[in-house]
Write a structure and sequence with these properties.
This protein has 271 residues and is mainly β. Helix content is 0%, strand content 46%. Strands 16-22-19-20-21-18-17 form a seven-stranded antiparallel sheet, with no helix packed on it. A hairpin with a 7-residue loop joins strand 19 and strand 20 (189-200). The chain is elongated, with a radius of gyration of 26 Å. The two termini are 40 Å apart.
């Protein structure tokens, strides 16, 4: 099947008499090939191999390969869409990676699928970096919490305090990334990952504790910065945004498997 690297010098192409085209790429590179007496033979390392002689698929010259299919969902390519799910009509689920043009990347492992009415169904989860890169802020739904009233704790375990009127308990969770911005509020800076949330309004406690030792984090240096957050993108993912989405499916089975159709559920994005 198709190799990960689409360099055509590293692939073997096959021609189909029935379809009168070139439907498949193979990962093995023989030294010579020949068809004889209704059998197909190839040569590698001075040895001759007869193909299609057993039930093991994708094993060439004692090297086991993955089955791989790459295609694209590109209906209405001028509209921004959110690609939410992957539906597979076939015998087995496939591990699938995704990439949109914005760009966003996603993943569905083969064990994330649920079988519904004979088809395999899974939600697409984002695989953006954690913490997010600056270039991902616009795509990762960075949201504001409020201006902090003070920052206590230490430089590695800062505690950010908020006014009692700020409701933090319902919008953030342990594991979310916290960012802070100071005037002129241009680019937020990563402050750390939430490790604890304390809300006890009668005792004037409304605060979050961070781990500022993670890579790229800097504890807030001002008492009254504006605090923002980004949810864990894999856990909280609701699909991938893009005009089109390229998907690459992989299957590691050594037996034959049938694949009839691949579908996705999308909704139009309204910025």
């Amino acid at each position: 099947m198709a190799h990960e690297n689409l360099n055509f010098t590293d692939l073997t192409l096959t021609f189909s008499e029935n379809s009168q085209g070139w439907p498949s790429f193979y990962s093995y590179i023989p030294e010579q090939m020949i068809g004889m007496n209704n059998f197909f033979y190839s040569f590698k390392g001075g040895n001759i191999y007869q193909h299609n002689t057993n039930a093991v698929r994708n094993n060439y010259y004692n090297v086991q390969y993955l089955s791989q299919i790459k295609s694209v969902f590109n209906e209405l390519p001028l509209e921004n869409k959110v690609f939410k799910t992957l539906n597979i009509e076939g015998e087995n689920s496939w591990t699938t990676t995704f990439e949109t043009d914005l760009p966003n990347t996603g993943l569905v492992n083969d064990d994330w699928f649920v079988k519904k009415e004979g088809d395999w169904f899974a939600y697409i989860r984002s695989t953006g970096t954690d913490p997010a890169n600056v270039t991902e802020y616009l795509q990762r739904s960075m949201n504001g919490i409020a201006q902090s009233t003070s920052v206590t704790g230490t430089s590695t375990i800062p505690i950010i305090n908020f006014a009692n009127s700020v409701e933090i308990g319902n919008i953030i969770a342990i594991g979310d990334m916290i960012y802070h911005a100071i005037p002129p509020y241009t680019t937020p800076t990563l402050a750390g990952k939430i490790t604890n949330i304390e809300v006890d309004i009668p005792n004037n406690i409304n605060r979050i504790t961070l781990d500022a030792t993670i890579t790229g984090a800097t504890a807030p240096s001002t008492q009254t910065g504006f605090i923002l957050y980004i949810k864990n993108q894999t856990v909280e993912s609701h699909g991938l945004l893009g005009h089109y989405m390229v998907f690459t499916m992989q299957n590691n089975k050594t037996t034959s498997t049938e694949l009839f159709a691949v579908e996705t559920e999308v909704s139009k994005s309204f910025p």
